[in-house]
Amino acid sequence: MTFHADTLTADLTRAEEDFRNRTPKSAEALARASRVLPGGNTRSSLWAAPYPLSITGGAGCRITDVDGNTYTDFLGEFTAGIFGHTCPSLEKAVTAAHRGGFGLSSHTPYEVALAEELAARFPSIDQLRFTNSGTEANVMALTAARLVTGRERVMVFAGGYHGGVLTFGNGNAPVNVPFDFAILPYNDPQAAAQEFAKSGDRIAAVLVEPMQGAGGCNVGTSEFLQALRDLCDESGALLIFDEVQTARMAPGGAQERLGITPDMTTLGKIFGGGLAFGAFGGKKAVMARFDPSHPDAIPHAGTFNNNRLTMAAGLEAIRNHLTPDALAALYERGEAFRAALNDRFAAQGGWFHVTGMGSIMNIHATADDSTLRRDRLRLLHFRMMERGYYFASRGLIALSFAVGEEEMGGFLDALDAVLRERQAERAT
Are residues 45 and 79 in the same domain? Predict the structure, then answer.
């Protein structure tokens, strides 16, 4: 692939022109959307220049855009789409819940059954509360930690993403909730120890992803995460694992694989069976503060927290799809695929490398210059879409159950073709 700076601009210009020629109706869809949505967008992570695809439908691991182009989807709805784009048993569960009545104005049996399933899987969870997203789950977990400990400070990590109002990719984002954050380098136990030595009596919680998903699938080391566990034990702060993405790594999430039990865990995405979902939970001593029968209870409202449709879908998902065997197989499939990708990239010049854990991974361009890295990845993204393979423009890949050996083999063959083609062009 032609990745030198002197030829990359021309290659990228041609690739973008080819993309525009294949997807004119997606451009028209964005123009229409822009009249009522700022930039035609209501979910910032979907934006990619010159415009995102407008997808009209999907089945299994295939999606189709408004121009009729079909892609094998290796993005999996940014990790939420683990079930693929169609699932008859989830459809049946939601339909049955709908027919039995939804929005029933009180408690229903579904929420209890789903809570029991989740508590049984995560040793860190005695009790939990449902929310509508991982973002809300993280905000409520931090709020609980601050109120229970009587402290204000929250330790987070550069590159971390815990939702739209808890994002630390470029420092403390202007839309973040106004908490007292200590933003430290990820995978640096010494920096964490220094912060605790300086202000440990003010730290209410440490919020950390076992693998930073939006941060480029940066995997936390056992040494780092265990150090956080020890520091919290010594200081009385609460350790919160954000497992909104990494819960798929095992029935008990990444914490099960690590053998490290946090004080609280936040969940989302897959446990809603394809519908909007979030949850936060922890030891009973913490979660009992939400008991509304107590006069000093922490309030936590939300019309759709126990949405009957979501609860039914989540229960079907956890009982019949997110099984130990299925999650183990998906984890190993992802490990093998990431290794195969890295082998391909190493054999073709080392212009890229892939990081991640299990079925979630991220392609990174290798270059000293950030603009060069961005443009190399954009070119690869365009050329793989041209061959019918879809992943995030930032390089994120999240395998679904529907992605099998045939699809992974096809992706690797297409990647080989792209890399060989560009090497041949460079040689002429």
Answer: yes
